[in-house]
Design goal:
Immunoglobulin-like; six-stranded antiparallel sheet; five-stranded antiparallel sheet; disordered N terminus; binds protoporphyrin IX containing FE
């Protein structure tokens, strides 16, 4: 009789201690981790980026943040077609290190390019004996806007890439157009100076 009384008592103590410690019996190592707000997934979430620059009244927006010796950019433009960002052009588009991409049928495409003339052409770096230095990218088309996030090293040491500073000014050009194409051109373009350690921008 005494034994019958002890077993339920031990069970109750065990259950109580589980409640107090918040242990629901599952192995916490195997629970789903919280969503990664900083993922390169084509979605810009609040506070994901430290810096932001708007051009053309918000029709083209650039976000960026640094991660060690790399940089993660997001470019967002009001189009279902091509969107592009260029770094440090000389005159017009000439000698700009460019990334050009689009989203088609839910799949993102992004090319590491270099403009060899004032109005192009801008072959892919790999076709100029350079390298594709985009280390990760993803894109989403939603509500008439295309977003592409991508990462690259600040200094790639590729002849067809420009170094990106952590502070000071980065001269940029941007463009977007209605077609999913590397060659069909843009309907909207502009440029400006990003202040890399702030969100101030001088541009159009
Ligand atoms: C997709 C193929 C492209 C073609 C065929 C093309 C063609 C042209 C042409 C003909 C012009 C001179 C006339 C104008 O201002 O519209 C121009 C200017 C310009 N393009 Fe492109 N472009 C292309 C891609 C790009 C890309 C990828 C960017 C940015 C990353 C860009 C940025 C610009 C800018 C900023 C200007 C104005 C330059 C200035 O007047 O200082 N273009 N483009």
């Amino acid at each position: 009789m005494k034994r019958c009384f002890i077993i339920p008592f031990v069970l109750i103590i065990c259950l109580l201690s589980a409640c107090i410690s918040g242990d629901d019996g599952s192995d916490s190592e195997t629970t789903t981790p919280p969503p990664n707000m900083e993922a390169i997934d084509g979605v810009v979430t609040q506070e994901e980026y430290d810096h932001k620059a708007e051009f053309s009244n918000g029709n083209f927006v650039v976000y960026w943040r640094f991660q060690d010796e790399s940089i993660i950019f997001a470019m967002v433009a009001k189009t279902d077609g091509m969107i592009a960002l260029g770094f440090e052009p000389e005159t017009g588009m000439k000698d700009a290190d460019m990334v050009i991409g689009w989203v088609k049928d839910g799949v993102a495409y992004l090319f590491d390019c270099y403009s060899i003339g004032e109005t192009g052409p801008h072959p892919e770096d790999i076709n100029l004996q350079g390298n594709d230095d985009i280390t990760a990218y993803a894109g989403v088309e939603y509500g008439g806007f295309t977003t592409i996030e991508f990462s690259r090293k600040l200094i790639t040491e590729d002849t067809f890439d420009k170094d990106i500073p952590k502070t000071g000014i980065l001269n940029v050009i941007w463009a977007y157009g209605p077609e999913d194409s590397l060659t069909l051109g843009h309907t909207n373009n502009g440029g400006g100076m990003l202040k890399m350690d702030s969100s101030d921008v001088v541009g159009y």
